[in-house]
Each structure stands twice: as structure tokens, then as C-alpha cells.
Design goal:
Layout lengths: L3 E4 L4 E4 L8 E5 L10 H21 L4 E5 L6 H10 L3 H18 L15 H13 L3 E4 L2 E4 L15 H7 L14 E6 L14 E3 L1 H12 L4 E7 L3 H14 L10 E7 L2 E3 L2 E2 L10 H7 L2 H9 L7 E2 L2 H20 L12 H8 L4 H21 L2 H18 L6 H4 L5 H19 L3 H13 L2 E6 L2 E6 L2
Parallel strand pairs: 3-4, 3-9, 9-10, 11-13
Antiparallel strand pairs: 1-2, 5-6, 6-7, 7-8, 11-12, 14-15
Bound molecules: adenosine monophosphate (AMP) and zinc ion (ZN).
Zinc ion binds next to helix 7.
Length: 464
């Protein structure tokens, strides 16, 4: 079955054919590790985790090479380290570990490669040197700048025209720039900032060059698929293309990446969830009280290119949906699955530019089939539908827990204790005794159970 992907550059769905089916390459811009990730930040890793699962199924596990970088030097990291009076490595190690733990809760598999900027300074310098030699970059006052006039296709990805951009420019332009849109490849470091030696003096790389240099060094050019959030189209990905193409004297954007995929925003009241707006929900907090699988389901409930509005109803609905599917698997627990192939309709949806809402809908059809077949005592049909459901869910990275564990799966003693604590917590809340409610929540946490609040009261299960 052919996979169709919407390509941002050509603005249409294109049949996906890798350059080499034995080595399918994919790069997604990863986190800047200076703080905890919010749910919006989780959308790209979850979406591309599904794509990687699908590609591995088609081309073989070992034939897909997936890289997601870690930006571990940046102004925000420097500022945080300075505030805390610690080296940047301490800040980045802390938040990278938190990021990976959060991703694990969402059942996002680690990428094959997680290149760090601070480990690739020689590769970055080499690509900047190549750009200077190619006449696409120039050194000025300790900086190296990309010369946008040297790349005629600049603006192709974002649909901007350089002349219009220049005409509309209102930014104050640094005196060493030839053109207001020339961007930094290398810059001098301020005192106390991390710094590396280079042919242009001690300094550090700009943001965009890290990705094109690490892609060239770790995956090789061109890669098959480049992904990220829609906010990265301009300037970040536009600049990546300019660098990756010009460093080797090419002119077609295809010399850098063959397909470009961008996910839409996660929004709150129609506004982008973002730290600068201050409307963020941290994953780290959310997964304390809600199973990561519910969050993953919620993130996959809309098509990745559409905006996804985050609200409490979405989580509630996602939990109910998972309850229903786990309920069918629970009921069919004694019947062994007779297939490990997802149904054709499911694959058709997923191969249509990752239509996850369509794919999720087919899971409900299978759970209904299981329920009907159980009632009718048709074990052959149960075995087939159960196998199809599990295989399909595996591609989406959901329904991977034991149904018993999902519904609690606790021994009688724990059950009694948790139920008692929940009743106490309800009483404390009714009395608006928040400190008491908090103490009870801590005791529930200590018992390693996850409590899920809903309109019909709280339910709970063991933390998996
Ligand atoms: P940042 O921390 O802003 O550099 O973002 C890291 C990644 O998360 C990038 O790929 C962004 O495009 C993505 N991202 C940030 N905010 C959102 C959001 N509200 N919805 C979807 N993706 C987002
Ligand atoms: Zn990038």
C-alpha cells in the first residue's frame, strides 16, 4: 500500500518513495532543553513516532534511521544556567532526562540518533566553512552570516519572496549585515557564555546551522523526510534548506530533504500553547494524574496538520475511548489472537497522510466486533478481530497495557485502601480543606496509583 504524505514544499500530497528502501532517513527538530516540555511540544514527537512505526512496518525495523536532535546550547539555556549559577551541562542534562521520561510515559520510542549540538561543533564549523568557500556566507566582525542573495530559491518552503521581505522589513539591522535577512551561522560569545574556537574567533553556532550540519554528519544528504512543528517553517527550516543546499553548490531544495512535514499547533481557546503566552500545561505535571496513554490518544485524535484544541473534555473522552477498547480486550482475554496484521481499512487511513482520526475509528469497529462475537460465542471471529485490534493499536502506540492493569488490577487490600483514601479526599474537597486533599493525594501517589477524575467521580488504576 502506497504511503501518501503532505509535503509542505510542494503543497500537496505526494506518494512516498525513499531514496534507498534499505536506509530510510527521517529528522525531526527536537527540544531545546532548558525547561519541562508542555503538551504542545509533545505533538511532533508523538506524530512522528507513529510515522516511524509505519515506516518500520513497511521497510523493516533496521531500515529506518530516525534522528531527533537535542539543542543543548542556546540563549535560554545560558540564562537559566547563569541564574542558577551552574554550568549549562547541568541544566541540559536535567531537562533532557525529564524530556525522555515524559516521552516514555507517552510511549514515544527513543529515536535511533539523538545528536547534541555540543558534540558536533567540528561538523558545524566544517559546514560553515563550506558555505564561505561556496560564496554563500561571509565573515564580519566575529560573526559569519549566510548571504540570502546567494540562494535564488530562498523563501520556497514558506512561500515568501525575498524582495517582498526586504520591502517589508522593519527590523533594526546589524551594521555588519549585507542584507537585513542574512542570518547568523556563527557568533561571538559574551563573557561567561559557552564558547568554542573557530576560524572566525571564539564563539558559538547560530540555531539553524546545527540541524543542517548534524543532518549531513549523521544521516547524509539528502534525507528523505524532515519534520517539525508548523512554527519552524520560517525561518528555521527555510534557513536549513539554504545552508544544506548551498554548502555543496546545489540549487534544488531536494538536495537537502525530499519531503517536508509540519504538524499544526496545539491550542488553548484558539491560541497556540506556548511558554511566552503562559498558557502551558506541562507534561511532567499532567502525567502525575493521567495515564500517558490518555494524553497520547488525545494528541492523535485530530489529524496532525489540523490545530488541536486542548480542553478537559478531550482528556475525558480519550479516557472513555480507551476504557471501551480495553473493555473489549478484557472480555476477550481468554481467546488467543489469530493474526498480527492490522485490517486494510486501518492501513488505508494511516497511509493517507497519517489520518489518525480515521485510523482510531477503525479500532472502535473492531472492538464492537469483539463484543458481538463474544456474545455470539464465535471465538474464531473474536480471535481475528482481537489480533487486528492489537496489531493496529501497536502501530499507533496505544493499548499496550494489560487490560487488567488498566482497570486497576489490584489486590483486595490495595483496593480497600485506595477506595478509602478516595472517599476521604472527596470529603476533604467538599469541606474545601485543600491541605488535607493534598496530603491524601500524596498518599495515593505513594501507593503508586493513578487517579482519574471525571464527572461521575474518580476512577483509578495502578501506575504501569
Ligand atoms: P520550542 O520549545 O518552542 O522550540 O518547540 C519545540 C517543538 O515543539 C517544535 O517542533 C515546535 O514546533 C513544537 N511546538 C511548540 N509549541 C507547539 C504547539 N503549541 N503545538 C504544536 N507544536 C508545538
Ligand atoms: Zn532544526
Amino acid at each position: 500500500m502506497t504511503l501518501y504524505l503532505h509535503d509542505t514544499l510542494s503543497r500537496r500530497k505526494r506518494a512516498f518513495t525513499p531514496r534507498d528502501p534499505n536506509r530510510v532517513t527521517l529528522y525531526v527538530c527536537g527540544p531545546t532543553v532548558y525547561d519541562y516540555a508542555h503538551i504542545g511540544n509533545a505533538r511532533p514527537p508523538v506524530v512522528f513516532d507513529v510515522l516511524v512505526r509505519l515506516l518500520r512496518r513497511t521497510y523493516g525495523t533496521g531500515a529506518v534511521l530516525y534522528a531527533r536532535n537535542v539543542t543543548d546550547v542556546d540563549d535560554k539555556i545560558n540564562a537559566k544556567a547563569a541564574r542558577e549559577g551552574v554550568p549549562i551541562g547541568e541544566v541540559t542534562a536535567r531537562y533532557e532526562a525529564a524530556y525522555l521520561a515524559d516521552m516514555a510515559q507517552l510511549n514515544v520510542a527513543p529515536p535511533d540518533l539523538a545528536p547534541h549540538v555540543t558534540d558536533h561543533i567540528p561538523a558545524i564549523i566544517a559546514q560553515i566553512e563550506a558555505l564561505v568557500v561556496a560564496g554563500a556566507a561571509y565573515a564580519a566582525e566575529g560573526h559569519v552570516l549566510f548571504d540570502v542573495a546567494a540562494y535564488p530559491a530562498y523563501g520556497a518552503l514558506s512561500g515568501r519572496n525575498l524582495e517582498d521581505m526586504i520591502a517589508g522589513a522593519r527590523v533594526e539591522v546589524a551594521p555588519y549585515k549585507r542584507n537585513p535577512h542574512d542570518f547568523v551561522l556563527w557568533k561571538p560569545s559574551k563573557v561567561d557564555e559557552p564558547s568554542w574556537d573557530s576560524p572566525w574567533g571564539a564563539g558559538r553556532p547560530g540555531w539553524h546551522i546545527e540541524c543542517s550540519a548534524m543532518i549531513e554528519a549523521r544521516l547524509g544528504l539528502p534525507i528523505d523526510i524532515h519534520g517539525g512543528g508548523i512554527d519552524l517553517v520560517f525561518p528555521h527550516h527555510e534557513n536549513e534548506i539554504a545552508q544544506g543546499v548551498c554548502a555543496h553548490g546545489h540549487d534544488s531544495p531536494e538536495a537537502y530533504a525530499r519531503y517536508w512535514m509540519h504538524n499544526g499547533f496545539l491550542t488553548v481557546d484558539a491560541e497556540k500553547m506556548s511558554k511566552s503566552i503562559g498558557n502551558v500545561l506541562l507534561l511532567h505535571d499532567l502525567v502525575q494524574s493521567i495515564p500517558g496513554e490518555v494524553v497520547r490518544w488525545a494528541l492523535l485524535s485530530a489529524h496532525y496538520r489540523q490545530p488541536l484544541d486542548w480542553n478537559p473534555g478531550l482528556l475525558e473522552q480519550s479516557r472513555k475511548n480507551l476504557d471501551r477498547l480495553y473493555g473489549a480486550l478484557h472480555r476477550a482475554a481468554a481467546v488467543p489472537a489469530s493474526t498480527d496484521e492490522p485490517p486494510a481499512e486501518f492501513l488505508k487511513a494511516l497511509n493517507d497522510d497519517l489520518n489518525t482520526p480515521g485510523a482510531l475509528a477503525t479500532l472502535f469497529a473492531l472492538s464492537s466486533e469483539i463484543e458481538r462475537a463474544m456474545t455470539a460465542g464465535d471465538h474464531g471471529m473474536v480471535a481475528r478481530a482481537k489480533g487486528e485490534l492489537q496489531a493496529a493499536a501497536g502501530l499507533l502506540g496505544v493499548l499496550q497495557s494489560d487490560p487488567d492493569a488498566w482497570f486497576g488490577g489490584a489486590d483486595a487490600e490495595l483496593k480497600a485502601e485506595v477506595e478509602a483514601l478516595l472517599a476521604e479526599r472527596q470529603a476533604a474537597r467538599t469541606a474545601r480543606d485543600w491541605p488535607a486533599a493534598d496530603r491524601i493525594r500524596d498518599r495515593l501517589n505513594a501507593l503508586d496509583v493513578v487517579v482519574m477524575d471525571g464527572p461521575d467521580g474518580a476512577t483509578w488504576r495502578r501506575r504501569s
